[in-house]
Amino acid sequence: MSAIVLKNLDISYGATKVVWDVNLEVAEGESFALVGESGSGKSTVLKAIAGLAPDWTGEISVLGQKRGHGVDRAFATRCQMVFQDPYGSLHPRKTVDTVLSEPLQVHGLGNRGARVKDMLAAVGLDQRFRFRFPHQLSGGQRQRVAIARALMLDPRVMLLDEPTSALDVSVQAEILNLLKRLRREQGLTYLMVTHNLPIVSFMCDRMAVMNKGRIVEIAPATALHDGRFNDPYTQSLYAASGGNPDRKVTT
Fold it and tell me: In sequence order, which ranges of the chain are alpha helices (DSSP H)?
């Protein structure tokens, strides 16, 4: 079964259409990247799937269930999103314990204390962080909390919007390795937005290249080894990365 299916997806902000005719299938268990320059529509696609950009037409399905335009509580148990900025995505006046407990409370799930402890351990945070506030955490620690929050409801699909771009270079590899391990251990499917081709090479199985709101090419991530792309824009993007971005990955 496909984890994510997008058919003829158009997305608008008010009267302005920003994404045109996106058709995409992400297999269950796959790690798939949306790449392209800033403003190409990558994050908008993720927001539409997550329900944060409701002005769309076409079809969005996650794990065989079609997504509507309204609030869908059941959808949250299947699919969650990790945002780019760990400084802005956590409430500054809520402790880590409260942040992680809230999804369980909203969905009426019990055993919250044990679940919080287990998830902190899963993302590599000591229990002493449980009752700290976001301002008492580093950027990498905040992003670990954001990942833990996204996993609290045991979703099978994760939407990752530039999950390391706001972090120091020294911390980025730690978060990427964490995401890779969690995918392996929990059988997760990732749809990741990034403009960083070395991350695609390290994290993903396939990639779709977006330009001006449209997908111009879908290719295996292995194409990053030899630059075998068909679309001129993709070729220029690859050339701008210096070619073979594998050589630049440090983990």
Answer: 42-50, 73-76, 96-106, 112-122, 139-151, 169-186, 197-203, 223-226, 232-240
Where does residue 143 fall: left (phi above 0), alpha (psi -120 to 50 degrees), or beta otherwise?
Answer: alpha
Q: How far apart are CA 9 and CA 214, in angstroms?
A: 10
pLDDT tens-digit profile of 189-236? Answer: 999 999 899 999 999 999 999 999 999 999 999 999 989 999 999 999
Q: Is the pTM of this model over 0.90?
A: yes
When the pLDDT of each residue in the chain is averaged and rounded to a whole number, the result is 93
State the pLDDT at residue 1. Answer: 81
> CB–CB of 200/220 below 8 Å?
no
Treating both helix axes as pointing N-terminal to C-terminal, what angle do 96-106 and 112-122 enclose, rounded to 10 degrees? 120
- How many beta carbons lie within 10 A of that of residue 20, not counting itself? 14
Instruction: Report in angstroms the alpha-carbon separations of 154 from 63, 79, 100, 194.
Output: 14, 9, 12, 24
The model's confidence at residue 72, banded by pLDDT at 50, 70 and 90, is confident
Angle at 206 between CA 123 and CA 224, to 5 degrees: 105
Look-up of token digits 């009426």: 108
> In whole angstroms, what is the distance from residue 120 CA to residue 144 CA?
8
Q: Is the dihedral of CA 239, 243, 246, 247 positive or negative?
A: negative
Going along the chain from its start, the domains and CATH numbers come out as 1-78+189-251 (3.40.50.300), 89-154 (no CATH)
